[in-house]
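Design request, tokens follow.
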């Protein structure tokens, strides 16, 4: 084989490798988003089991010491912020002052895209967060921002 043939083979192999990495990244983001919804529901279950209020306790205390036996969770901000599988989890009050569980990407587009919020009624809402305005611990979602959609039924299997 000539030099040109080898260069062509290398070019094709490089293109295929780039496509594979891109697909793996898309799958990783999808898996993180799925896990974020599941984690929100697990946190809500733990809060309910502990009396149903986050007014007098931290999210970490409500979740319990056995919340994530895999050790894949990191708590910060005095137990009020959880980082797990590419997402951050916290609590913020809604317009009536009720605590809303929230999830948003640790690094937008690298670890996740959408932001999620689980209301006390167990209504799950999602925001596409296309611009990446909610990314990292300093950029929490604002539930009053337009664009939140009820996805309770659509994501019920998670």
């Amino acid at each position: 084989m000539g030099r040109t043939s080898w260069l062509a083979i290398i070019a094709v192999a490089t293109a295929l490798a780039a496509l594979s990495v891109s697909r793996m990244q898309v799958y990783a983001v999808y898996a993180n988003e799925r896990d974020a919804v599941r984690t929100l529901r697990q946190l809500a279950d733990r809060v309910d089991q502990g009396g149903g209020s986050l007014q007098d306790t931290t999210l970490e205390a409500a979740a319990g010491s056995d919340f994530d036996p895999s050790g894949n969770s990191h708590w910060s901000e005095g137990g009020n912020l959880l980082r797990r599988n590419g997402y951050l989890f916290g609590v913020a009050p809604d317009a009536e002052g009720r605590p809303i569980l929230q999830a948003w990407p640790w690094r937008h587009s690298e670890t996740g895209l959408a932001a999620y919020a689980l209301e006390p009624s167990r209504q799950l809402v999602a925001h596409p967060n296309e611009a990446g305005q909610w990314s990292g611990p300093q950029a929490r979602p604002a539930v009053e921002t337009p664009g939140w959609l009820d996805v309770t039924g659509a994501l019920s299997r998670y």
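Comment from the thread starter after seeing the answer: thanks! The radius of gyration is 19 Å.
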